[in-house]
Design goal:
Blueprint: H1 10-13, H2 18-27, E1 32-38, H3 50-56, E2 61-65, H4 85-93, E3 96-101, H5 127-136, E4 140-143, H6 153-167, E5 172-176, H7 194-203, E6 207-211, H8 221-233, E7 237-242, H9 251-264, E8 268-271, H10 282-303
Parallel strand pairs: 1-2, 1-8, 2-3, 3-4, 4-5, 5-6, 6-7, 7-8
């Protein structure tokens, strides 16, 4: 059994393979934080990446959104070859790195969509792109959809099967949606159902993602709890996600969401990338962390040097 993630340091993570990551997360009993950041926008601290900032506030896992594996950009990194940007980010943060890939249907056109979310070829959930991510040093791929990109749960399931067959022994595969992603028939409690959870698991998901309670209409703590129980009964990890810009809400709201996610039984607590645009408000990462694991583990993660 791998060490609990909340007790690990960089030298532990450097030795981890896929199963080690999964065991380490599970052993932490709902005290793991994943922070989503965007590298293509101006970092909140200018010449320091948003991912580094999130790590400094206590994130255990860094999830890169709008990351194009064919034209990778992470503003704030020291100058490195594009193919080395993930490894450089790992060197600077000592954290597990995941990226979002989107199973967008060919020919899909989003109307009235914000320019920042528009899909590019290197962000699509293809076997080629997932393989490229693995080569770059990515530990986890999350199959999900950004606002308005029309990602359907069936497309996530189909993509999971493909990636599992070719890369499933090396790459952690996470799957789920934080919001409807432009599919009106999959809004509210239909964003993800027990049937979807079971299909994702059958197709090869190692981690299933749900909206955090209180972040999407109709998504209650009890409903998420039932989905977590379904996943855990199949020995699959779960991630609750704040993907509706409430990562930029007031701290009392963040604390409420954190407690509901803990009561629902999730393994990973995800905060999205849009406090403004680029990452969650840093004070909310800190507040969330204190709720789910107290000051001892929060400050330990923040204080531990990447040279340990």
């Amino acid at each position: 059994m791998a060490k609990r993630m909340l007790e690990c340091v960089t030298s532990d993570f450097q030795k981890f393979k896929k199963q080690d990551w999964l065991e380490s997360i599970g052993a932490s009993e709902g005290r793991v934080i994943a922070c989503e950041t965007i590298g293509m926008v101006m970092p909140m601290l200018g010449n320091i990446t948003n991912a580094e900032f999130a790590a400094s506030m206590g994130a255990d896992i860094l999830l890169l959104n709008i990351f194009d594996v064919k034209e990778p950009v992470i503003h704030g990194l020291p100058k490195v070859e594009a193919s080395e940007c993930i490894r450089e980010l790992k060197r600077l943060t000592g954290r597990m790195i995941g990226i979002n890939l989107e199973p967008v249907e060919d020919g899909f056109v989003a109307e009235g969509q914000d320019e920042v979310w528009k899909i590019s070829e290197g962000r699509k959930a293809t076997l080629e792109n997932a393989g490229k991510a693995l080569e770059m040093g990515v530990d986890m791929v999350l199959l999900t959809g950004n606002p308005g990109n029309g990602v359907k749960n069936q497309a996530i399931t189909d993509t999971l099967r493909t990636l599992k067959a070719e890369l499933g022994d090396k790459l952690i595969l996470a799957a789920g949606k934080m919001h409807a992603s432009g599919v009106l028939s999959e809004g509210g409690e239909h964003i993800i159902t027990k049937k979807d959870v079971e299909e994702f698991i059958e197709a090869g998901a190692d981690i299933v993602l749900f909206p955090a309670p209180g972040t999407v209409p109709g998504i209650t703590m009890e409903y998420v709890r039932s989905l977590v129980e379904t996943a855990h009964s199949r020995n699959v990890l779960t991630m609750t996600s704040i993907g509706t810009s409430q990562e930029g809400a007031d701290e009392s709201t963040i604390r409420q969401i954190a407690l509901m996610c803990k009561m629902a039984g999730t393994d990973i607590h995800h905060l999205g990338d849009s406090g403004y645009v680029g990452m969650a408000l840093p004070e909310n990462i800190l507040a969330y962390s204190k709720v789910i694991r107290g000051v001892r583990h929060t400050y330990r993660r923040m204080a531990a040097s990447v040279n340990r």
